[in-house]
Amino acid sequence: MNPLDAICNRKRNDAVCVSNLKNAKAVDKGVLVERPDVKIFLPFRFFVYDVKNLFVANTYNRYLVAPSGDHLTSLIDEISYVSPPAPLLSQMSDVPAELFCNGDNRPANCGNNCQCVHKVDIPLGAVVEVVLVDEVQQTNLSHPFHLHGSPFYVVGLGRSPDNSIKKINLKHALDLDRLGMLERDFTKPTLKDTIAVPNNGYTVLRFRANNPGVWLFHCHFLFHVAIGMNLVFHIGTQEDLPPVPPNFPRCVASDADHLVSLIDEISYVSAPSTILSQYDEIPAEHFCNSDNRPTNCGENCQCVHKVDIPLGAIVEVVLVDEVQQINISHPFHLHGTSFVVLGMGRSPDMQLQRMNLQHALELDRRGLLERRFLKPALKDTVAVPNNGYTVLRFRADNPGVWLFHCHFQFHIVIGMNMLFQVGTPEDWPPVPAGFPRCGHYKPPITQW
């Protein structure tokens, strides 16, 4: 079905092209007229960046190392799609007009990787023909295009009948159309919502634009969606749409807090490579802790937060909640070992409104931090009381580098983590021969 070689202009015994199938149901004959109301040619391809134009060494806050391989953006009609800042159905008027573009209206400053909200306006009720032209031309790759909001008839697909043409492009497809050589079969064509465009070929679609709205049209490969192989068809006008319901949520600049998380006044960022197997390759200045903060660290100090612990040591950790958000208790989780929970609670000083490190140190000096050593519970995760503290103990007898973090995913992302390095690299097992290295992984190539 839908063979990759795109030989669809003759009957064959080994495959069936979608364009050769016949619709078992009644077709909309008004769509299958010789001249559509709107005809849109959409060539699509990749734009390959030069790595040096994307990554500049030693300039990245989170220590990005530029990987090898191609760095791509996708283009439809020479435009890479980016999402609007608000939903078009309910807030079209809130989106600045200069954010939109299409093949007839490209921004003046657009380069080879032109980016915008790619939007094609179509009158309500129009008969639309779309001709997709594959300018990617990667061997054995046929891009599956999907239309939201309406099915379409597949009236033709194939490759150029001119055997001297090695690579199809928009100009050649326009010439074929002018000469009547783009295959179209209006005899009961099949109805689809997704179709694979033949490699180095074309596909001709027809639909009636009778569903008002803003409908996404895109390649169905997730990676290609992410890098811009999309556009939207705006069918009709906003007056053709149902009214926005009262109190419908709006996408606006958030008035909420914008946060990073800090443990001991440090927000964790990941190391540029795996610490266990490539420890010696990480510059020492990437690491820090409260006793060794970078001189240029501000209120949102960021580093690979690492605390070194001697192998075999008995470790006590006192977690102090300075967040103090109502009804939230942060669940902290330790990798690599379990711990006993010796105590948790709030300050016995009823006059104290907000717990902080200084007060916790003062309680500890006075013996007022609760600790119970009689058969304490063994855990690997514990919730720290809101506006309170938790006291943990463990024996550091598992050498390695172990993550300690809040278990709320958002808090992990914004830095509420740290590492306990137990022992030294000499205490760790040797790195296995042939063990994968960051930046050096090459997947095996298998021929089928």
From TrEMBL:
Any Gene Ontology CC annotation: plasma membrane
Q: Record's CDD domains? A: CuRO_3_tcLLC2_insect_like
Give the UniProt keywords, A-Z.
Metal-binding, Oxidoreductase
Please list the residue ranges annotated as the Plastocyanin-like domain.
83-236, 290-423
Quote the Gene3D superfamilies the UniProt record gives. Cupredoxins - blue copper proteins
Give the residue spans that cross the bilayer. Answer: none
Question: Which domain of life does this protein belong to?
Answer: Eukaryota
Cite a single GO BP annotation. Answer: iron ion transport
Cross-referenced PROSITE patterns, in alphabetical order?
Answer: MULTICOPPER_OXIDASE1, MULTICOPPER_OXIDASE2
State whether keyword Metal-binding applies. yes
InterPro entries, per database record: Cu-oxidase_C, Cu-oxidase_fam, Cu_oxidase_CS, Cu_oxidase_Cu_BS, Cupredoxin
GO MF entry, a single one: copper ion binding
Which SUPFAM superfamilies does the UniProt record give?
Cupredoxins (SSF49503)
Q: Does Oxidoreductase show up as a keyword for this record?
A: yes
Q: What is this protein called?
A: (Mediterranean fruit fly) hypothetical protein
